Amino acid sequence: MEAFTLDTPAGGIHVARWRPARAADLHEPIVLLHDSLGCVALWRDFPEQLAKATGREVIAYDRLGFGHSTPYPGTLPPTFVADEARSTFVALREGLGLTRFVLLGHSVGGSMAIETAGQHADACQALITVAAQAFIETRTLAGIREAERAFGDPEQMARLARYHGDKAEWVLRAWVDTWHSEAFRDWHLNDALPRVGCPTLAIHGERDEFGSTDQARRIAELTAGPAEARILACGHVPHRECPEELAAIVAGFLAEPA
User: Fold this and answer.
1) Does domain 2-255 have CATH number 3.40.50.1820?
2) Any idea where the AB hydrolase-1 domain is (predicted)?
């Protein structure tokens, strides 16, 4: 694994790359987009497993405000999901020279991957969403509130700080306050999904506490390209709960002829 800081107009972005021993140079790299409390480190061993299973380079990065990247300037706007595709991701694409790529996003990172696949349709060859949100459900907001209560435990906040340092409180508030804000109440991806023309696999856990399996079905139904919803016997974090199965599913999907 290679890790480095990519300088961008908005600040330093922490990036990591995993290259399998027998990488196929003709295959597009897989770019990972993390969840609301996530960062590169919280993917744990999954990027390495994914690189080995697919024979592709895997790239992950910390969004502004998360992990080892520069703090975010202020509070998140209600447009933050779509903004990622036209801000930090553009800098990442230009900085790494990514002419073509595959996107895999977890939770809100999956929502961002949808926006990115549509806004970069010329370059995105395939899209995989994992536990992504395409619209807001009561379960989503209730799960966030329950998680907020859990972070009332100083040990939980200390754990978050191990990954985000002094940005930990901002990370938590950016998640809780943005999703419960009046400006975000009617958020959905109904307009973004039809712009996705590449093959799409929407993966969701049947026990996901932040969204029902209707999320994956909505994604598969509204994308313009060939799409499939796959339901797994797990919760919200398949890359931690069943990483080998997830890597194998992704590898099989990417091995299918276009």
Assistant:
1) yes
2) 30-248
pLDDT band, very low/low/confident/very high, at 105 (cuts 50, 70, 90) = very high
- pTM, two decimal places: 0.96
Q: Which amino acid is at 48?
A: E
Phi-psi region of 65 (alpha: psi -120 to 50; beta: other; left: phi over 0): left
Sheet of strand 227-232: strand arrangement: 2-8, 11-18, 58-61, 30-33, 101-106, 124-130, 200-205, 227-232
Cα–Cα distance, 159 to 225 (Å, whole number): 40
Question: Do 217 and 229 touch, CB atoms closer than 8 A?
Answer: yes
pLDDT, tens digit, for every residue of 85-98?
Answer: 999 999 999 999 99
Q: Residue 208 and residue 237: Cα distance in Å, rounded?
A: 8
Q: Please report the pLDDT score of residue 256 as a whole number.
A: 75
